[in-house]
From TrEMBL:
<protein>
    <submittedName>
        <fullName>NUDIX hydrolase</fullName>
    </submittedName>
</protein>
<dbReference type="Pfam" id="PF00293">
    <property type="entry name" value="NUDIX"/>
</dbReference>
<feature type="domain" description="Nudix hydrolase">
    <location>
        <begin position="43"/>
        <end position="173"/>
    </location>
</feature>
<dbReference type="InterPro" id="IPR000086">
    <property type="entry name" value="NUDIX_hydrolase_dom"/>
</dbReference>
<dbReference type="GO" id="GO:0016787">
    <property type="term" value="F:hydrolase activity"/>
</dbReference>
<dbReference type="InterPro" id="IPR015797">
    <property type="entry name" value="NUDIX_hydrolase-like_dom_sf"/>
</dbReference>
<keyword id="KW-0378">Hydrolase</keyword>
Length: 185
């Protein structure tokens, strides 16, 4: 079985350039020699996502409307950042405080995942924040309407099994966090 090969980018241009969204059009040559002149890629900022656990064993989650899905979803606090301008851990701590009013003494790196590597450039940087505690009010952007929800680890298992948690990055962080708590090392 052959080893996968990189595609060669012959040319690239921004087909759509807006402050909220950028789309790049690449002309690529596949390993088999076929040229595709209209491969579109969403150029998106990275995401810092944090799994906060309080000293009482509650996971701090948020519920908010997500227009792309046109649904109110339960997820972990997260936000975008430019990795060339800001450290992922600092972005994660900032987003935790802004979206929930909680902070934590330290954040532990869990993993970096690609969000949708077929058509998007961004990665999700996952962090665990143990001993999270409330320090103040939420500081929300004008587009945010966020409800803070505290769930026990047992509730999380039930919510996942029932399909109440549907955001991929949140599920990945929860599974990594649950694995960490089951096998701390």
């Amino acid at each position: 079985m052959p080893t996968p090969q990189l595609w060669k980018i012959l040319s690239s241009r921004l087909a759509f350039d807006h402050r909220w969204y950028k789309v790049r059009q690449d002309t690529v040559c596949l390993p088999n020699g076929k040229v595709i002149d209209d491969y579109f890629v969403s150029v998106r900022p990275d995401v810092a996502l944090v799994l906060p656990l309080t000293a009482h064993g509650d996971i701090v989650m948020i519920r908010q409307y997500r227009h792309g899905a046109q649904a109110i979803l339960l997820e972990l606090p997260a936000g975008t950042f430019d990795p060339s301008q800001e450290d992922p851990q600092i972005a994660a701590k900032r987003e935790l405080e802004e979206e929930t009013g909680y902070t934590a003494p330290t954040l532990k790196f869990l993993s970096v995942l690609y969000d949708n590597p077929v058509k998007e450039t961004n990665r999700i940087h996952l962090f665990l924040a143990e001993n999270a505690y409330l320090v103040g009010e939420q500081r929300l952007d004008e587009t945010e309407d966020i409800e803070v929800v505290l769930l026990s680890i047992d509730d999380i298992h039930q919510y996942i099994a029932a399909g109440y948690i549907q955001v991929a990055g949140t599920l990945a962080a929860l599974y990594l966090g649950l694995q960490h708590w089951s096998n701390p090392s």
